[in-house]
Specification:
Elements: H1 11-18, H2 21-48, H3 55-75, H4 79-103, E1 114-116, E2 119-121, H5 123-144, H6 150-167, H7 171-187, H8 192-212, H9 214-224, H10 232-244, H11 268-299, H12 305-329, H13 347-363
Antiparallel strand pairs: 1-2
Helix pairs in contact: 2-3, 2-11, 3-13, 4-5, 4-6, 5-6, 5-7, 5-12, 5-13, 6-7, 7-12, 8-9, 10-11, 11-12, 12-13
Transmembrane segments: 22-49, 61-81, 87-104, 148-167, 173-190, 195-213, 267-293, 305-330, 342-364
Protein name: Probable peptidoglycan glycosyltransferase FtsW
Organism: Sneathiella chungangensis
Length: 374
């Protein structure tokens, strides 16, 4: 059995003593729970689609080890190489996002995916974490030197990204990107006049989205007036939590997965609530909260401004995605097709989250020095 001592100067040995092992454990638990939940929720979906019962299970268990390897490999990088990876990823997935508008299939009125054989790729899932790191770099450069218009470059990139998202259209993801970018800009020392301006722009944009996108208006209307109908998935999800109670009906014994079209993706938290109960749901929520809060606590001692902004953006994005998915399942916000990190089924989601978590672990590693990137 291989053991690492503090004197071990190998790449893996150094990684082991500098990486946040508690976050690794929390992520590992989420990944394991995700495997269990896909195993519990997806056979009913596969049967409904006339597929082999373990169609989604086999695919997810093929994705999981690759995602784990991806997290480990990226977490070995220095902050400088994380930045370089983000720049390359941002450019590459921006091109693929443009390609979705030109050649991507239309699904439910949106062009968000590219088909590669049996694998469907959603480039914007990878664009989100890459943009967060690139934006952090620009904000940090502005603070380092006024000769580089980092804020203006970041604003231009932000406008570029949200334009691509709205053209698909994907209003929900646009809101997530806006929230993450605004949080980073605020941490970077956003002037108060800009705060007021962005709040006004946000209110106007929300009203415009409601007016211009019928599916957005429909979701908001159904959320504000549940009695109006059209809330089939939300109603089934709420029934699942009521049926599950505190301790659930038992693994595999739930019925909601046979009624919900998205039980293995957007509404897997409802399946978790029915089969494992409120107690396990609270444990999952606690794991997400632990990862986010521990990540921010480690940033309190960080000297490099780019690392602080990049990691804060990634943590905000990770936590916000979990909050939105859980909030939708609990009817606390309008429906939005967003997966639960590391638990929902999906290759694009899994690999994009592996990219995010790998970069986050790399940025949050303990490093000696005065804040210079190495």
């Amino acid at each position: 059995m291989t053991t690492f001592t503090r004197l071990d100067r190998s790449v893996v040995g150094s990684w082991w003593w500098t990486v946040d092992r508690w976050t690794l454990v929390a992520v590992g638990v989420l990944v394991l729970m995700g495997g269990v939940m896909v195993l519990a929720a997806s056979p009913a979906i596969a049967a409904r689609l006339n597929l082999d019962s373990f169609h989604f299970v086999r695919r997810q268990f093929m994705y999981l080890p690759m995602a784990v390897i991806m997290i480990f490999a990226i977490s070995l990088l220095s902050p400088l190489w994380v930045r370089r990876l983000a720049v390359v990823s941002f450019g590459f997935f921006s091109l693929l996002t443009i390609a979705t508008l030109l050649v991507g299939p239309e699904v439910k009125g949106a062009h968000r995916w590219l088909q590669f054989g049996s694998f469907t790729l959603q480039p914007t899932e990878f664009l989100k974490p890459s943009f967060a790191v690139v934006a952090a770099w620009m904000f940090a450069e502005q603070r380092r030197s006024d000769e580089i218009p980092g804020n203006l470059i970041s604003i231009a990139l932000f406008a570029f990204v949200i334009t691509l998202l709205l053209l698909q259209p994907d209003v929900g993801m646009t809101l997530v990107v806006c929230a993450v970018w605004f949080a980073q800009f605020f941490l970077a020392g956003l002037p108060i006049i800009w705060v007021v301006m962005f709040v006004v722009v946000g209110i106007v944009s929300a009203a415009a989205a409601y007016s211009l996108f019928p599916h957005v208006a429909s979701r908001v209307d159904r959320f504000m007036d549940p009695s109006g109908g059209g809330n089939y998935q939300i109603e089934r999800a709420m029934e699942a939590f009521q049926t599950g109670g505190f301790f659930g009906v038992g693994p595999g014994d739930g019925s909601v997965k046979r009624q919900l079209p998205d039980a293995h993706t957007d509404f897997i938290f409802a399946v978790l609530g029915e089969e494992f109960g409120v107690v396990v749901c609270l444990i999952v929520v606690a794991l997400f909260a632990f990862i986010v809060l521990r990540g921010f606590s480690r940033l309190l001692e960080e000297k490099n401004f780019f690392v602080v902004l990049a990691a804060a953006g990634l943590l905000t994005q990770f936590g916000l995605q979990a909050v939105i998915n859980i909030g939708v399942n609990l009817r606390l916000m309008p429906t939005k097709g967003m997966t639960l990190p590391f638990i929902s089924y999906g290759g694009s989601s899994m690999f994009a989250l592996a990219l995010l978590m790998g970069m986050l672990l790399a940025l949050s590693r303990r490093r000696a020095g005065t804040g210079e990137l190495k």
